[in-house]
Amino acid sequence: MGRVFSQEDGNLAVKPIITSTAKTYKDIDLTFSAKPSGDVYKKTDAEAVKQAIKNLLLTNYKEKPFQPYYGGDLNRFLFDLNTDFDEDDMQDRIAEAIIAYEPRVKLKRVEVTLLDDEHYVQVRINFQVVSTLENVEQNITLTRLR
Questions:
Q1: How many other C-beta atoms are found inside a 10 Å radius of the C-beta of residue 79?
Q2: Residue 75 falls within a domain, yes or no?
Q3: The domain spanning residue 37 has which CATH number?
Q4: Which residue among 8, 29, 124, 132 is least crowded, i.e. fewest CB within 10 A of its CB?
Q5: Domain of 126?
Q6: Does the residue 63 lie in any domain?
Q7: Among 16-20, 37-41, 94-98, 138-142, where is mean pLDDT lowest?
Q8: Going by C-beta distance under 8 Å and a sequence separation of 6 or more, which residues neighbour residue 63?
Q9: How far is CA 79 from CA 84, 115, 144, in A?
């Protein structure tokens, strides 16, 4: 009795089968707003990645169990003396955290504006979402409460 093969089975050594899948990033909206159906809203693609970056940067060292150096540890900068650091130190810390812990992002630029007298830091991050090749800009504001 003979075997039946598809045409592709006979050509596997000659021509590989190439597939591509579009990867969609999904996450729960951390505002936890309820839909009328009772479910929570979800964030997808660039919005999910932006939320993940914000959470990463606002996480202090030693807050995540078993990963003591996870996070941006940016709150430390808000409570240091103004002469102990500058914008370059914050830019380096942000870039290191994103490169190390967010594989869905290709980082392009980080800008930090420090307003000493107002206890205010404005962070602007430009990145590309890897799966969609979408360029995204995210602004994060850090303030110290008195």
A1: 9
A2: yes
A3: 3.10.450.40
A4: 8
A5: 22-143
A6: yes
A7: 16-20
A8: 70, 71
A9: 10, 13, 8
In whole angstroms, give the CA distance from residue 5 to residue 36. Answer: 52
pLDDT tens for 28-80 read 888 888 888 888 888 888 999 999 999 999 999 999 999 999 999 888 877 66
Q: Which two tokens stand for residue 10?
A: 């006979």
Classify residue 65: in a domain, yes or no. yes
Residue tagged 């940067």 (tokens): 57
Question: 4-38 burial string, b = 16+ CB within 10 Å, else e?
Answer: eeeeeeeeeeeeeeeeeeeeebebeeeeeeeeeee
Retrieve residue 141's tokens: 């504001």
pTM above 0.70, yes or no: yes
User: Is residue 11 included in any domain, yes or no?
Assistant: no
